[in-house]
Amino acid sequence: MAALFCIVVFLLAPFISHTADPDPLLDFCIADLSSSPSFSSFPCKPASNVTSEDFFFDGLMEEGNTSTIFGSKVTPGNVLTFPALNMLGLSMNRVDLAPNGMNPPHSHPRSSESGVVITGKVLVGFVTTGNVYYSKVLVPGQMFAIPRGLVHFQKNVGDKKAAIITSFNSQNPGTVIISTTLFGTQPSIPDHVLSQTFQVDSSVVHSIESKFGS
Ligand code: GLV
Ligand code: MN
């Protein structure tokens, strides 16, 4: 049995890929968002309906509205907003940060991330699976890299607005925001689970939940 298991693992090894999304099999496949995705891709819009406009996206031109509880706004350029990315294994975000604003700790289950600071002064940090924290304050033109799935954040530590462009090796990286994932679910995670997790009593859990709408 063990030998069979080893043979199966050995045969599958070449297919255990480090790329997040599968390679494209066609030149393009503009997503037909009215259909449901199968695996990671959407079906294609009929080629006869495709125009130049399908391949260009101006959704990252405008500054996002940072009047949010975190003083930040992430504007996605992924397959759901820019269907030309379907099947390409790529996407980008624009992250706007008010002074002191933060893109709170989160992770992307399907992608690594790189980013470049466009304006402002930004503290970028992430934590490894071994609980090591890496961070640096970046200024315009400086880049960062976040390995796939690791928890990371960006915080504006300057006195002016900041903006970052981030990029992903997935058309739909997914985002797990730690605070809302634990304290803003529907229905909510039972109090006793959260109070035991954080070793606090349930009044603290309720107080945090009240901020995240759960
Ligand atoms: C930044 O971390 C982003 O996910 O765009
Ligand atoms: Mn991110």
UniProtKB/TrEMBL annotation:
InterPro entries: Cupin_1, Germin, RmlC-like_jellyroll, RmlC_Cupin_sf. GO terms for molecular function: manganese ion binding. SUPFAM superfamilies: RmlC-like cupins. It comes from the Eukaryota. Keywords: Apoplast, Disulfide bond, Manganese, Metal-binding, Secreted, Signal. Mn(2+) binds at residues 106, 108, 113, 152. This is Germin-like protein. Residues 1-19 form the signal peptide. Belongs to the germin family. The lineage of its organism: Eukaryota, Viridiplantae, Streptophyta, Embryophyta, Tracheophyta. One of its GO terms (cellular component) is plasmodesma. The gene is LOC110700548. GO terms for biological process: plasmodesmata-mediated intercellular transport; regulation of root development. The keyword Transferase does not apply. Disulfide bonds join 29-44. PANTHER family: GERMIN-LIKE PROTEIN SUBFAMILY 3 MEMBER 3 (PTHR31238).
